[in-house]
Amino acid sequence: MADCQETLKELERFIDAELAHFEAEVVVSHLKTCTDCQGAFEFHTELRQAIRVKATRDELPDGFAERLMQCFGDNVYSPD
Ligand SMILES: [Zn+2]
Fold this sequence. Notes:
The chain is mainly α. It has four helices and no strands. It is elongated. The longest helix has 22 residues. It has one domain. Helix 1 packs across helix 2. It binds zinc ion. The site of zinc ion has 6 residues, from helix 1 and helix 3. InterPro entries: Znf_put (IPR027383).
């Protein structure tokens, strides 16, 4: 049975699916019984998704372009 310290240490690799099957099972069985580690797992998962979205979608956040226009005027997007 893994303890919290061990589980948290493996959490990032678990989320990245880098653990061997038996190692992942140890993490999963611990997560089922430990709300502290569940919270950490959810936090890391959301963090990872946020980073992935940011890295793969090279888009400005909603309204950001409009705010730029208001600050700098329409010329900011017309280099001519
Ligand atoms: Zn734990």
